[in-house]
């Protein structure tokens, strides 16, 4: 855990330092489009760092949420209709997670492929990296410095891409499974007073015991509803700040990217 966190932070901070230095050196030059392009990269990395910091602050709460979902959502015995709801929810989660991961990692891949295509057929002294590193020594385009820097940038870009979408995937999975649990609860409440169940129970016991049995079921469903509401509150406490920051930075990114498209 500590090594993974250190490794992730190191890679992301290296990526941020490279982009911030490039932004500093580009600022004021007659290259406004390039400045906006680098700014978009910086905002994306800041967004990733914000996600990590927020979820580190709420690390214990997030662990409790995941353990609760594991115990009460994913490892329970369901009847055929309830299992159908869960299976549909899993398929929906798989689709959303795959789509978002595809676009996030696809973006990272384009950053890596672009210099490979551009460098094809070029002289060794004229090669470019995925992200510009402005160093006074021109030898960074020569072997082995170029290969080392290229590998380092690929690793950092991959870390940024993974951290960019993994927390959103977690929130998507938890939200969809919570919605599925509310549907299951609705189904159970609608079938509390089952006629066939009444006949089977009445053959073995009295009416008062049947009423107590149904009262216990209804009470359990109400308690489950209260637990789901509390679970939603915990989700909101953990992810509200993250979602607020993400929406705010997304708005800025959309404006900057829109300007780049129109240029």
From TrEMBL:
GO BP terms, alphabetized: signal transduction
Keyword annotations from UniProtKB, A to Z: Cell membrane, Membrane, Olfaction, Receptor, Sensory transduction, Transducer, Transmembrane, Transmembrane helix
Pfam entry (one): 7tm_6
GO molecular function, one term: olfactory receptor activity
Top-rank lineage group of the source organism: Eukaryota
Xref: InterPro entries: 7tm6_olfct_rcpt (IPR004117)
TM annotation in the entry: 36-59, 93-113, 145-167, 238-262
Compartments, record wording: Cell membrane
Bilayer topology annotation: Multi-pass membrane protein
GO cellular component: plasma membrane
Protein name: Odorant receptor
UniProt source species: Heterotrigona itama
